[in-house]
């Protein structure tokens, strides 16, 4: 515990007090096998161990063949030679030790070590100090209350405007996503997607804490939020990430939601990337995989630094491509394919001068992951599974997809994952584990992960009619449809939304005409086509087509169209990691929307001030200038 190598890899101040006191009791480590030799032109110098008795603060590391100052090593002395790098110059040992022990940095560290564990003298605070502290606390609490009230007013104004927009819009899609803010409490974020003022809009609605994690509990909590909005007929799509999409004995969340909202079709949302969703499912249901993905993410965090990434490229002699350290399947592949180069890089960071203590400590932790059999086994497993997920994701984004292609892609995915599942014992080294008479359950974890991924994909894509129906509004396919009308795609759309699309004959006639007029749709997206129809005053002539476009624009399905980028869910996740409270998150997510809101900033500020000022009796107009 008092060895130099251990103290270099941990932060002494972060250790429990019991461990700190034990290290102080043990004192500086003086290894018996420590050897330090300095070769010169005329003479060879060897470190004499009696120096340990001369300088009680001296300690040494056999792996680094260097001397260190024990107090400075513990408390981060300013002299990096004695605190982190190590001293090796025997020739000048006498003068350098004398200089170091006279330095103010060493003296401060030695004082801290000497006083460690002693009961501090309680400060005597006079009455004036006490009154000042009490007054400060009172003002702080008052300011905090004002801030909370202000955020509440902002959110209230925002919700009023959202309610007004929902009354004007024709259809609404709902997205549910699990997030974790700084308090580490998992919550469900609800986002609504709809068309307003000829523009697709995604609005954050509310955060909900769900205590009942069953499918019935989740659906009931979501319905409780949506019920006041009166969206029974307007809600035409629902989508969930892996954590929110559950199935139990009572059915699935989407099935229970469809009972209350009969027009809502479950779709795989573009904001829920399939590989991330499947990882989320595995991590939320299998404890070992939650730990694995957390450890894996630390590699991406560590090598996000340009200096560390450059060190990795230098060690690999540019024989590997620079990994893209964003977690998709790329991080798994980067760590699996480059693990030898990563290990060599981490070892260089730990042994070469120039790196700070925190980096050295992190490098040690990562190197331990790459030497842990279970981590490597799971890394190997996901390196084989995640490419299958990427293949399926790419197929689902094909513009000319049909039901048979989806079924074939899903069947191939399931077959390939089952094949990997069959090799789980081999990947986990099950035979070797039995010879060691261990109880390693890695193979069972892999099999369970495969079962969860297969079940999730089957639930998400068992009905792919919405992907086929979406081709009806894909402008790139209109020239093809002009020659041969997409009757199968129209049938899928009518099957999914029979109530909104009740006039099938008129819709078919309108589409037939639309496909022939390339000046309307040439080079456009579905949103641009919708805007063109409105701008040219053709919305009454193409009324059923506008309904169809409205449905698909409000449906956050997987699509290659550019207008489906920058989802509200991404912004919510960013703010959740940086904010503390629900009210602050509500306000920040609302204000982060890239579109203008409530007729501009001035009007919004005025409405907030009108709500806030009378209730709090404060002059707050300066806040909104």
Protein model, in words:
With 625 residues, the protein is an alpha+beta fold. It folds into 5 domains: 4-115, no CATH class; 168-266 and 571-594, 2-Layer Sandwich (Nucleotidyltransferase, domain 5); 276-462, no CATH class; 471-560, no CATH class; 599-625, no CATH class. It has a 5-stranded mixed sheet. It has a two-stranded antiparallel ribbon with strand order 1-2. A two-stranded antiparallel ribbon has the order 3-4. A hairpin with a 4-residue loop joins strand 1 and strand 2. Helix 18 (403-422) runs antiparallel to helix 21. The radius of gyration is 32 Å and the shape is elongated. Mean pLDDT is 80; it is low at 318-323, 433-439, 560-566 and 618-625.
């Amino acid at each position: 515990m008092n060895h130099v190598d251990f103290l270099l890899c941990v932060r002494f101040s972060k250790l429990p007090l019991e461990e700190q006191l034990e290290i102080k009791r043990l004192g500086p480590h003086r290894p018996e096998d420590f050897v330090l030799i300095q070769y010169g032109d005329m003479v060879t110098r060897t470190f004499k161990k009696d120096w340990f008795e001369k300088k009680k603060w001296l300690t040494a590391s056999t792996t680094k063949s260097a001397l260190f100052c024990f107090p400075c090593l513990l408390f981060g002395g300013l002299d990096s030679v004695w605190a982190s790098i190590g001293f090796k110059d025997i020739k000048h040992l006498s003068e350098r030790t004398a200089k170091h022990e006279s330095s103010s940095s060493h003296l401060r560290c030695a004082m801290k070590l000497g006083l460690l564990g002693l009961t501090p003298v309680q400060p005597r605070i006079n009455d004036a100090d006490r009154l000042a502290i009490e007054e400060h606390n009172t003002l702080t609490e008052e300011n905090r209350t004002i801030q909370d009230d202000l955020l509440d007013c902002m959110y209230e104004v925002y919700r009023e405007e959202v309610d007004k927009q929902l009354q004007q819009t024709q259809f609404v899609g709902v997205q549910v996503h699990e997030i974790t803010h700084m308090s580490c409490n998992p919550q469900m974020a609800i986002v609504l997607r709809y068309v307003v003022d000829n523009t697709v809009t995604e609005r954050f609605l509310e955060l909900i804490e769900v205590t009942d994690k069953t499918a019935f509990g989740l659906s009931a909590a979501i319905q409780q939020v949506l019920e006041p909005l009166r969206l029974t007929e307007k809600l035409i799509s629902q989508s969930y990430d892996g954590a929110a999409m559950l199935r139990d004995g009572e059915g699935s969340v989407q099935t229970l939601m469809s009972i209350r909202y009969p027009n809502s079709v479950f779709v795989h949302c573009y904001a829920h990337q399939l590989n991330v969703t499947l990882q989320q499912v595995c991590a939320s249901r299998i404890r070992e995989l939650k730990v694995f993905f957390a450890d894996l993410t630390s590699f991406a965090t560590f090598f996000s630094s340009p200096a560390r990434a450059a060190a990795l490229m230098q060690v690999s002699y540019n024989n590997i491509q620079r990994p893209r350290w964003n977690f998709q399947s790329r991080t798994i592949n980067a760590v699996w394919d480059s693990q030898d180069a990563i290990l060599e890089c981490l070892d260089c960071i730990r042994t070469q001068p120039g790196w700070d203590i925190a980096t050295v400590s992190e490098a040690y932790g990562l190197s331990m992951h790459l030497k842990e059999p279970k981590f490597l086994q799971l890394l190997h497993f996901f390196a084989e599974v995640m490419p299958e997920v990427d293949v399926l994701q790419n197929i689902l984004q094909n513009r000319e997809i049909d039901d048979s292609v989806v079924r074939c892609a899903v069947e191939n995915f399931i077959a390939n994952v089952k094949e990997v599942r069959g090799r789980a014992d081999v990947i986990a080294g099950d035979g070797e584990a039995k010879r060691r008479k261990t109880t390693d359950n890695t193979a069972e974890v892999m099999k369970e992960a495969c079962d969860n991924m297969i079940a999730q994909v089957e639930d998400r894509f068992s009905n792919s009619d919405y992907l086929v129906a979406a081709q009806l509004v894909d402008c790139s396919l209109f020239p093809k449809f002009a020659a041969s009308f997409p009757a199968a795609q129209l049938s899928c759309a009518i099957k999914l939304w029979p109530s909104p699309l009740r006039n099938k004959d008129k819709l078919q006639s309108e589409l037939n005409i639309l496909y022939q007029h390339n000046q309307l749709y040439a080079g456009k997206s579905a949103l641009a086509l919708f805007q063109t129809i409105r701008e040219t005053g053709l919305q009454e002539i193409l009324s059923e087509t506008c309904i169809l476009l409205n449905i698909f624009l409000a449906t956050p399905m997987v699509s290659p169209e550019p207008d489906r980028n920058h989802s509200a869910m991404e912004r919510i996740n960013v703010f959740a990691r940086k904010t503390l409270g629900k009210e602050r998150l509500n306000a920040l997510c609302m204000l982060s929307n890239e579109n203008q809101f409530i007729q501009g900033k001035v009007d919004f500020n005025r409405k907030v001030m009108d709500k806030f000022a009378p209730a709090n009796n404060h002059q707050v107009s300066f806040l909104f200038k």
